Amino acid sequence: MIPTPDLSHLSTSDYRNIYEPSEDTFLLLDALEADEKQLKELNPSVCLEIGSGSGCVTTFLGCLLKPNQPYMITTDINPLAAVATVMTGKKNGVSIDTVQTSLVTNLLPRLHNSVDVLCFNPPYAVTPSEEIGGQGIEASWAGGVDGREVIDTMLPFVKELLSEKGIFYLLLISENKPAEVIELLQGDGFNAHICLQRLAGREKQFIVKVQR
């Protein structure tokens, strides 16, 4: 069993500005751990997390893949999250490069079809569209109509990023209409299915696993 990364360097005041790991984070960690054998056999060279927040997911993935250490890169529009991600990696012995940017802006064509493991716990909450676009804590949850506006902006980039052997893990909730998202990904030629799901209070969460 891979332990949850040590986040003791982050305080309550930090979590006023960056997303604190919660049930959705832990569901994504569980999906990665369930695929530990497959991920190690994949022997990834590049792992990318979009919207890294505290850095918990990428750090966990880096620990899971040890002793091999792929190139771990993350993005987050929130500058405080970018700093926290690097700190979390260092605290747990995982080297992480982070880019403060929106989604994957400036990563293409550099990472074209080069990402072997892609993770995205998106801002999925149903909100007014006007709440999207900030660079603070609201960027971690404001998803617009059906909680899908940021997700739908990201989906076309998956085929540009994912390597031939790559795996994409995407977290969704019921309001995001997972069946529609899976259909969109299948329309791009991917094999996509729900690999894990859990009820967190009233919120039903899903991990969609995507491969070519």
UniProtKB/TrEMBL annotation:
Principal subcellular localization: nucleus
Alphabetical keyword list: Methyltransferase, Nucleus, S-adenosyl-L-methionine, Transferase
A single Gene Ontology CC term: eRF1 methyltransferase complex
One annotated GO biological process: methylation
Superkingdom, natural source: Eukaryota
Chain segments annotated as transmembrane: none
Subcellular location: Nucleus
Segment forming the signal sequence: none
Matching InterPro entries: Euk-Arch_PrmC-MTase, PrmC-related, SAM-dependent_MTases_sf
GO molecular function: protein methyltransferase activity; S-adenosylmethionine-dependent methyltransferase activity
Transmembrane in keyword set: no
Family affiliation: Belongs to the eukaryotic/archaeal PrmC-related family.
Protein name according to UniProt: Uncharacterized protein
Classification lineage: Eukaryota, Fungi, Fungi incertae sedis, Mucoromycota, Mucoromycotina
